Amino acid sequence: MKLITISGPPSSGKTSVLLKAMEELKDKKLKIGVLKFDCLTTDDDKLYAAQNIDSRVGLSGSLCPDHFFVSNIDDCVDWGIRHAYDILISESAGLCNRCSPHIKGCTAVCVIDNLMGINTPKKIGPMLKMADIIVITKGDIVSQAEREIFALKIRQANPDGIILHVNGITGQGAGELAILIEKSTQVETLKGKELRISMPSALCSYCLGETQIGKEKQKGNIRKMNLD
Questions:
Q1: I need a labelling partner for 228 at 20 to 30 A (CA). Which of 33, 105, 120, 189 fits?
Q2: pTM, to two decimals
């Protein structure tokens, strides 16, 4: 089974480009499953169901979405093996720009759209900078010059990643994404595998439920701004 992690900022078009790529893959009679990770709610499972694609939803709720993801992804892979999927795709929103931590040996995709501003690529962390494939969406509503500058900024942030332009509405470019997904590395288990980068460090009183503001309430991993 091939495991692909797909992440990107909210509303960047992850689900739209995935659905278009899956149309290409389903024509090849490949059995596909999708894992949707989100924080509070999602209706994307209904979109997958409408195309007869199996999916499961995981909501992190009050937990850090990064930690929720990595605490569940190995069980998810076992689930995918049991159901004999040819391709298992994990899709999640990068709400803190560190979500969907990429896994060594598994294809990682980051979806980002042209409307986010030219400085956005350098603000996004490992989710973009350590991805194997970067999909740029919404290219039809910006100028050619804007598309080229945005792609250059992404190239500067991630010199080695494959950059694709995909239209989530028309499906233009989705065929190339489908080919790369199909060529992804085979994975039978995640036991022993590692993340490409460690999780964001955070263990403070607010992680444990503290709501009061003030130095006397701040315990654990605290970093203060230099305001002098």
A1: 120
A2: 0.90
